[in-house]
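Re: folding output
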Amino acid sequence: MRLDESFPVSLQKQQALRDRITRLGINLSLVEESFTRGGGKGGQKINKTSSLVMLRYAPLDIVVKCQRERQRSLNRFLALRELVDQIEMKVSPATSERLADQGRVKRQKDRRRRRSGD
């Protein structure tokens, strides 16, 4: 996979993703990328285009699929961002923003459960 393509997102988001990739030391040549037809709602558009992006990072055995948007290039960016999140959660859990968010939500739910008396 290469990052030289311009994604349909802001330059700040692209640069932030590139910075995370270099900080974590992810080798993008090890990321296998494939495109398939998606499923679900969407009718003819979904049935005719291969907009589902599947990324596989073999060293950690992580597979990410993304079909959130209609544009393949945007799905590529979203899938890559999700892949970087998954890698960060495995490699560097202390710096993972996603794990911190999950912990914060868990603490809020525990607090609410204690207050309600369940």
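--- second protein (sequence, then structure) ---
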Amino acid sequence: MNRDSAEPRPPRRWVVCVDDFALHRGVIEATLALIKLGRVTATSVLVDSPNWRPAAPELKAVADQVDVGLHLNLTQALDLGSSVWRLPSLVVQSALRLVPRWRVRNLVERQLDGFADVWGRLPEFVDGHHHVHQLPVVRDVLVDSLLAREPRTMPWLRICLPPDGDEDYKARVIGMLGAPPLAELARQEGIPASRCLVGVYGFNLRRDAYLAKVRQWLEAGGEGTVFMCHPSTKVSAKDPIGEARRMELGVLAGEAYAAALTRAGVTVGRGSALFKTRPPTLNRRA
């Protein structure tokens, strides 16, 4: 169907989230610029990066415009004290329930503390670097750790299910790694959670192709979708997706992207307002 002649979609509210805040200076600069433009409404932080503490004051200056969350990292060593897995090994070990629960708990607790020590409170949401927060064992430890802290407002969790209209193979695989069980666990424990995720691609697109992909996501995603992005002002030699990051920034800062949101009837907002919050239940798995 020609989109120009189609009936307009009902208005929908989305969260647009920049992942990897504090990875390097380029990501920090891009995130702050897009927040100020009103193009993104969330960012998740790699708290074990040495750039987190120095960059926090800049993020605090615009924190009234975004949710600031924890980008749980179990797969990329960012400081000398990091003890992480290679992603394939973590996926296999977690699926077989062989990953040491104590080790996962130590990393989860360390990163929650690393966020709160700098930010002054718990994150407003939690997602995962390489989507590790949804893996078996990891999701249980994460939820237990959040419930044990008894926050007045429970952080919302990002669910990595693609929308029904998204047939991208990579997106489907990511969802199969644990999104439905995480959504069910969040429901059982009264933890707010997003609906679905878009923004998954192979990091090999040029600007026009990425914008076309964004338009497809805007057609497919319903109410409560999270649009994940990874912009940067710079290409880092140590960053394998550096060129894609700079390309994403060009699209997200452009007027064509803003027009695409308007045309699709999508407004962007904060997940802390969009996703229903409920008082946490007692931790039944303790």
